[in-house]
Amino acid sequence: MRPIMVAGNWKMNGLSADAVHLTQAILHAEMEPMRPEVVIFPPFTLLHAVSQEAKSSALRWGGQNLFWEASGAYTGEISGAMLRDMGCRYVLIGHSERRQIFAESDAQVAQKVKVALLSGLTPVVCVGETEAERAQGATEAVIHRQVEAVLPLLNLETSQPNMIIAYEPIWAIGTGLSASPEQAQAVHAFIRGLVAAYSTQLAKRLLLLYGGSVKGNNAAALFGQTDIDGGLVGGASLQVGEFIQICRAAELAGRGG
Ligand code: PEP
């Protein structure tokens, strides 16, 4: 049985005091360790504060991005080793805001995934279609293209997945308009099928998160779907009560780590 995960993407929000407050609130919610696995993605400037609060707990944290070179003259960028140095285990790669606002291509996403793996980080690779693409019936084609770009980097020698894929329809991010559980399940099943063409064992074990307006009141229905292994949560991860409600829904989805 696959574990279930709830990941909170804080995006470009928060100062030190917020990081301490939010992290402590999650820790005080006393979820059974690793059920679900809870990971937070604060801005780089807050990684240290989060790590200080969470270092002896089951809570995990990660970076929202990284650069594909190890070091050098890349002003403003962050390397995988720097994230590891902050105690990160995970890194978000190819979030739609990075693909759209910063024009990250599939090839760049793949380069970042490669360097994240070499750095010992687990990439959470985000994929998703726009509203127009869905309206044109191009959802599967877009997801296929984005997933195919990183599939060669999957750990094919073992049946242990080395990455997580988050399906985040762009029309659902920050809009309050979540995909229905059925819509999300259909795309998750499609992604698992793409991976199964490489390895059925890996496909069975691969964690697939759904992201896009996950809230306390829709999380249970989403997490109840066969191929949805948790959520990547943006706005609601900054609201303690909502985020904990989402984590509780994941706990109740009844999967052990
Ligand atoms: C996100 O940014 O990854 C996200 C899913 O945002 P929201 O939950 O606010 O839609």
How would you characterize this protein structure?
By secondary structure, the protein is of the alpha/beta class. The protein is built from eleven helices and eight strands. The mean pLDDT is 95. It has a single domain, classed as TIM Barrel. Strands 1-2-3-4-5-6-7-8 form an eight-stranded parallel beta barrel, surrounded by five helices. The longest helix is centred in the C-terminal third of the chain and has 16 residues, at 181-196. Helices cover 39% and strands 14% of the residues. Helix 1 packs parallel to helix 2 (47-54) and helix 7 (139-148) packs across helix 8 (181-196). It binds phosphoenolpyruvate (PEP). Phosphoenolpyruvate (PEP) binds next to strand 8.
Give a nutshell description of this structure.
The chain is α/β, with parallel strands linked by helices. The protein has helices at residues 16-28, 47-54, 80-85, 96-101, 106-118, 131-135, 139-148, 181-196, 200-205, 219-223, 240-252, and strands at residues 5-9, 37-41, 60-63, 90-93, 122-127, 164-167, 208-211, 230-233. The protein has an 8-stranded parallel β-barrel with strand order 1-2-3-4-5-6-7-8, surrounded by 5 helices.
Please outline the helices and strands.
Layout: E1 5-9, H1 16-28, E2 37-41, H2 47-54, E3 60-63, H3 80-85, E4 90-93, H4 96-101, H5 106-118, E5 122-127, H6 131-135, H7 139-148, E6 164-167, H8 181-196, H9 200-205, E7 208-211, H10 219-223, E8 230-233, H11 240-252
Parallel strand pairs: 1-2, 1-8, 2-3, 3-4, 4-5, 5-6, 6-7, 7-8
Helix pairs in contact: 1-2, 7-8
This protein binds phosphoenolpyruvate (PEP).
